[in-house]
């Protein structure tokens, strides 16, 4: 989830400022309309994907107006399609400029249905999980005209379902909730009440009066020259994300959080007879799916006091001998492995609804193997291993930076960085595997591999376990 920012610490734009910034972006700063529209639509789609997962909210209706706000909605619909949603588009007042007709062609090539106002169901809740309100942006003036006036009323009526406890589609407004004044908000209480507002470039003044549970900022393109001119205080975007949450996330009943996994069947007759081969197959799937750090694993150890401890480490090798990782030999986990040379590993791949548990005995790898891997690491990581003496207490982070800087200068000539004696690898020799794949209604697949002797040979027996 994107990190949250206090809404009071973020700048809000007047209508005039928003218009001036757009003119500057598309004038002296060289942005084109289609560039900004593409970034805006992508920001809207990623904001939706942050909160409303396609496994539960896949049916999307994007209602698009004739201006740039409608264009943002068309772009968002395309990205949502590629994110795994099933979008439909209502675009009653089409703009015939090449940019907009191109966006329509792109959606039609994906077989995304376009619905007329007459085609729309009377009750949106039966056909859609998400409504994207992309009708009017900050440049709109006057009273909404047909058919948008009626569409706004129909969306406003959806909030009546809250009182009857009926499920209704959530509403996501792009930049300005339709029917609102850009600066004063929902003056006559006749505008849309969005569940999510996605502000673009910077929030407009009316965003301060949005009471929906989700407010995101998108449009990661504001250059410093504009931020300085308008004294904009904008939140940093986390990582490579195109959106950032503004304000606190809504209070959620943790007991109500649940995911209904949808996965292909994981059957005994389809799996590899050797669990190492099955593990490699799933790792390859995780890498192909683009999952972050597919080699991350939770390592659990138990000390002589019988108390377990767990931490995340990175798998650095797997072969017939077992699973290899590297660490500080003076760390807590190393001390516990010295007292009790048994451990368990847990791999979890959220995007594939899969996890693997491995249990077994642990031993240190050879000095030669540790040395070889140490010098395969980036030089910065090698220096970091020397600086990090895991069990020692330090007065602050500045100590690490100082020690790192000293070592960086010491080895600036490119000379070989010696591996510390207290750093090296471990290998877990597997004695038990469990492959888990999430399924609907909690009827998960669990296949366990356990070793047994047959005619003097070690083979793996596969059993299905209860979910």
Written overview of the protein:
The chain has 467 residues and is of the alpha/beta class. The chain has twelve helices and 17 strands. The strands form two sheets. Strands 9, 10, 11, 12, 13, 14, 15, 16 and 17 form a nine-stranded antiparallel beta sheet that branches. The chain has an eight-stranded mixed beta sheet with strand order 1-8-7-6-5-4-2-3. A hairpin with a 4-residue loop joins strand 13 (342-349) and strand 14 (354-364). Helix 3 runs parallel beside helix 4 (98-109).
Separation of the first and last Cα atoms: 28 Å
Element-level helix/strand string: EHHEHEHEHHEEEHEHEEEEHEEHHHEEE
The low-confidence parts are none
Counting DSSP H or I runs of 4 or more residues, the number of helices is 12
Q: Strand percentage, roughly?
A: 15-25%
How many DSSP E strands?
17
Radius of gyration: 28 Å
SS content category: alpha/beta
Residues in helix, %: 25-40%
Q: Judging from the principal axes of the Cα atoms, what is the shape?
A: globular
Largest sheet: 9 strands, antiparallel
Q: State mean pLDDT (0 to 100 scale).
A: 91
């Amino acid at each position: 989830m994107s990190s949250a920012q206090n809404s009071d610490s973020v700048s809000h734009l007047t209508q005039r400022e928003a218009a001036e910034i757009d003119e500057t972006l598309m004038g002296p700063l060289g942005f084109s309309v289609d560039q900004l529209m593409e970034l805006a639509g992508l920001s809207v789609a990623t904001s939706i994907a942050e909160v409303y997962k396609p496994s539960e909210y896949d049916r999307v209706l994007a209602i698009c107006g004739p201006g740039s706000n409608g264009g943002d909605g068309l772009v968002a619909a395309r990205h949502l399609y590629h994110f795994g949603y099933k979008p439909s588009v209502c675009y009653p007042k089409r703009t015939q400029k090449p940019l907009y007709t191109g966006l329509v062609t792109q959606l039609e090539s994906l077989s995304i249905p376009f619905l007329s106002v007459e085609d729309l169901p009377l009750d949106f809740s039966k056909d859609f999980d998400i409504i994207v309100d992309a009708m009017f942006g900050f440049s709109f003036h006057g009273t909404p005209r047909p058919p948008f006036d009626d569409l706004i009323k129909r969306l406003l009526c959806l909030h009546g379902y809250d009182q009857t406890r009926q499920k209704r589609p959530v509403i996501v407004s792009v930049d300005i909730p339709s029917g609102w004044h850009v600066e004063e908000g929902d003056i006559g209480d006749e505008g849309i009440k969005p569940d999510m507002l996605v502000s673009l470039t910077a929030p407009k003044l009316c965003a301060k009066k949005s009471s929906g549970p989700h407010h995101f900022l998108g449009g990661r393109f504001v250059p410093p020259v504009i931020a300085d001119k308008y004294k904009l205080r904008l939140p940093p975007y986390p990582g490579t994300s195109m959106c950032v949450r503004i304000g606190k996330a809504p209070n959620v009943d943790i007991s109500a959080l649940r995911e209904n996994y949808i996965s292909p069947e994981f059957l005994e007759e389809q799996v590899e007879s050797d669990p190492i081969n099955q593990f490699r197959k799933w790792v390859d799937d995780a890498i192909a799916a683009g999952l972050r750090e597919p080699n991350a694993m939770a390592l659990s150890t138990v000390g002589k006091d019988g108390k377990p401890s767990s931490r995340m480490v990175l798998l650095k090798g797997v072969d017939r001998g077992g699973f290899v990782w590297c660490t500080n030999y003076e760390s807590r986990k190393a001390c516990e492995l010295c007292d009790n040379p048994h451990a368990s590993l847990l791999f979890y791949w959220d995007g594939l609804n899969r996890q693997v548990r491995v249990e077994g005995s642990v031993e240190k790898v050879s000095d030669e193997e540790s040395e070889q891997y140490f010098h395969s690491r980036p030089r910065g990581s090698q220096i970091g291993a020397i600086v990090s003496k895991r069990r020692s207490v330090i007065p602050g982070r500045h100590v690490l930076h100082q020690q790192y800087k000293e070592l960086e200068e010491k080895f600036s000539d490119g000379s070989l960085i010696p591996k510390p004696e207290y750093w090296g690898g471990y290998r877990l020799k597997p004695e038990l595997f469990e492959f888990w794949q999430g399924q609907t209604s909690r009827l998960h697949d669990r296949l366990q591999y356990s070793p047994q002797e047959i005619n003097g040979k070690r083979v793996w027996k596969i059993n299905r376990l209860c979910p």
